Q: What sequence folds into this?
């Protein structure tokens, strides 16, 4: 893969924070960015238009208009590339489903194993204790991370934790403004540079709530702004493993956090789960 998108992948880690934020947004959805004005992109990323202009120069472009054209061209070219260029050399276009299943299985196993093996368990324990004792827990994520946030909220709810989830930034920020020292906010972002999630963690922290980040980048703004950071370890290789396995790393973290929280509030969790099972039992028996 060559072109502006490849250059962004290569250069983004060494860029200043504001430029990395823009790069993450571009890489997340280059087609959408190609349709944005520079003012729109700056507002979405929470940076100045000057930061975007400087990013364009780093990429060897004359300005933002040239970047939009390059993005549109690059996106179209990548979509037209052969299977191996887009999906990786470890799976060929004519491979059987058993072969593909083997590759995917290996990638998922590695993502989960690397993540759980690299987690700071002391931090996990601190996070679980905070969640178990919180009068209010808000979970937030955008896009695919929003799906994981919803999963975590449902699990916490099942053990009696007063947990809420939203993908609405305004609602999340309003809720964070009303939190106190015993409350908890959990922000989920693979890159750790999703501006909405970073802003939410900042607002919650300013109001004294315990903040927890779930991200793949320990040096990201989200990880640095949160009080506790739970770091996944999903690596890019072959079958675009990072894109396919991001959620598996995040789900491994929330599995561990959920069980640790249930242990910390064992009696309440047991009573809540028993009551929930009794409530739905007649409907399960009816089917």
A:
């Amino acid at each position: 893969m060559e072109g502006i998108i490849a250059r962004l992948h290569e250069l983004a880690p060494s860029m200043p924070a504001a430029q990395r934020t823009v790069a993450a947004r571009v890489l997340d959805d280059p087609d959408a960015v190609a349709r944005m004005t520079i003012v729109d992109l700056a507002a979405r990323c929470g940076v100045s238009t000057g930061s975007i202009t400087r990013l364009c120069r780093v990429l060897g472009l004359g300005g933002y208009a040239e970047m939009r054209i390059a993005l549109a061209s690059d996106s179209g070219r990548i979509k037209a590339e052969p299977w191996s260029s887009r999906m990786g050399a470890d799976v060929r276009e004519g491979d059987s489903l058993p072969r593909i299943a083997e590759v995917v299985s290996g990638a998922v196993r590695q993502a989960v194993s690397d993540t759980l093996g690299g987690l700071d368990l002391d931090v996990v324990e601190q996070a679980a204790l905070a969640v178990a004792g919180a009068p209010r827990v808000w979970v937030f994520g955008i896009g695919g991370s929003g799906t994981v946030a919803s999963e975590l909220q449902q699990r916490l709810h099942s053990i009696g934790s007063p947990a809420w989830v939203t993908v609405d930034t305004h609602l999340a920020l309003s809720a964070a403004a009303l939190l106190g020292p015993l409350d908890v906010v959990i922000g989920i972002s693979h890159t750790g540079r999703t501006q909405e999630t970073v802003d939410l963690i900042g607002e919650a922290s300013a109001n004294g709530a315990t903040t927890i980040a779930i991200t793949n980048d320990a040096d990201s703004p989200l990880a640095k702004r949160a009080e506790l950071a739970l770091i996944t370890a999903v690596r890019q290789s072959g079958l675009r493993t990072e894109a396919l396995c991001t959620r598996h790393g995040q789900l491994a973290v929330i599995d561990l956090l959920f069980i640790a929280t249930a242990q910390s509030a064992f009696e309440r969790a047991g009573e809540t789960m028993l009551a929930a099972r009794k409530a739905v039992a007649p409907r399960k028996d009816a089917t």
Notes: The longest strand covers residues 210-215. The beta strands are 137-141, 163-166, 184-188, 210-215, 228-231. The first helix runs from residue 4 to 11.
